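Record minuted for everyone:
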Amino acid sequence: MTRKTKPLPPSGRADSRPESAHRNSAEGRQEGRPEGRPEGRSGGRSQGGRQQGGRGAQGVLLYGLHPVSAALLNPERRVHRLMATESGRTALEPVLAQAKARGLTLPGLMPADRMDLDRMLPPGAVHQGVALDVAPLPEVGIEDICAESDSDPSALVVVLDQVTDPHNVGAILRSASAFGAKAVVVTERHAPETTGVLAKSASGALEAVPLVRVTNLARALADLQQAGFWTVGLAESGDKTLAQCNLTGRTALVLGAEGSGLRRLTMERCDLIARLPTQGPVGSLNVSNAAAVALYEVARLR
């Protein structure tokens, strides 16, 4: 399916990287979330790009108590079907009561047994007796994050340079939510699709932290810089540790794929390259662990 690119707002952003560390904020502010469950947006992209459903799914099949509960309580998430075993239904009763109290419209619960869910979901999926067929979330663009951050002088964003494993991206979303990041930015290509596997690893954070896809990562970094973000790439070659950097203002943490790390052009676009103070015979971390440590360090410095 052809994806339409949203035009950038007239904010006067340049294609080249600004030289000054103090940049003008992006113009405009993001509008508040609509109340109730939306009917979807026509002509726009869905958050997370291409979506993969399970057998017989209209959209994406989420599974597990945390992802399903978060989606049921998200007014921006359109729900097609809710399936649960008897034990799953019991576990979801408090969540269904909350959704009803908030005026959210939900489909009737379809009884299912464990074998039904096993057949619908990926092999080995830990579904805990619940599955939810949902439509993709509405798109959030990099320009939306820049505009929303205009009123937040300490906004925090995570940028991933071709990180392809859905478990890693899901875990990073979870850490981003825990430490108050506004978004996780990934590349349009060389990034995982938004599936139940990613949502399960995110443990509900997919509903709380926008997963923003961009075609050109270098341009996205320039947009963030124009909006006042200090872009900090993480690499073992960094001269300073994160603890030695001034990260009290708007900050974008940029992490690369395991093995290859940050690409050359991505490193050149960053304002500085920093490292984590790892050592010993195994001095590197899984990218999701590195993101969690980096997010904690930024929170500690503030």
